[in-house]
Amino acid sequence: MNEKRILLTVGYDGTDYCGWQYQDNGPSIQAALEEALRKATGAFARVTGASRTDAGVHARGQRAHFDTAASIPAEKYPFVLNRFLPEDIRVTKGMEVAPDFHARFMAAGKWYAYRIHNAAHPDALFHRMTAHVPLRLDDERMRRCGEQLLGTHDFAAFAAAGGQAKTTVRTIDRFSLVRTGDELTIRVHGDGFLYNMVRIIAGTLIDVGHGKLPEDCISRAIASKNRLDLGITAPAKGLELTRVEYGFERGENAYDPGYPDGAF
To answer: How far from the centroid of its chain's Cα atoms is residue 157's Cα?
Structure first.
């Protein structure tokens, strides 16, 4: 029987996982999906993710492909796989794609969100999804600083050790920072991101919001390519991979996050 390639959209609470990819030190999202597929189809299938999210990082719109000879219609995979997945991993969409499609290498853009609970005490309901910052942040300073990300730049200063990118040049075309009560949400969209880049952006903006770094630190770091010109690497739990998009989803089908800034 001929195999077909299926593209999944996957959401997960990454708190209890060692990340997307297989690790020796704990359960991974990839392993959970492959086990669910084995139970659903009776055969092993390798699942290839678009983004190798780290331990504790969450997703609403991770994308992943696999090959299968099973007769299950592509659009039925969410219903089938969710029967075998833990409640903190959900498949929300399935579609058939071309045999040469690749979820990682063909990604045209990504949306990320970083959420901060900016209050004296952590949030009892959303503490797994937000970074707690007790001291009041200056939103306007953070917003002015973040806007320096926009454009095509060499983001070498924003790459943590351990990354394997062939080039550090990226294009960031959307940035927003919105406060809703005590919740601050940073959103960025670009053609790609370096290892820990969004967490470094978030940590830098937090330091700017506290007055520990100057407002022009991002422009300085882009020019200097020096990681020391930036701030801390913010905790993983505030980060969400909101969406991975492909060329066939551009134009009239361009993605909109679909819910208010600051919402969970």
So the answer is: 19
